[in-house]
Amino acid sequence: MGTGGEPAERGSIDELLDNLMEIDPDALREAEFEQTQSILDTLAGKTISRAVLEDRRIVIETTDGYRYFFFGFMGKGG
User: How many independent structural domains does the chain possess?
Assistant: First the structure.
């Protein structure tokens, strides 16, 4: 929490939209794939006790009590 002074410079909505338009969807998918593969690699040798498909993520639980969350591009369309 700040006190006094001007708010931090955040940029305009137009600048933010321009930045979003420059995002490469293929690069974003590749990064998501690599992150998911990295998490799956840590599951080697573990036993999955539960898997739940939620609205915007998949939750994997292992018998040792750990939970793994996969978000990706699971949002509903339309």
Answer: 1
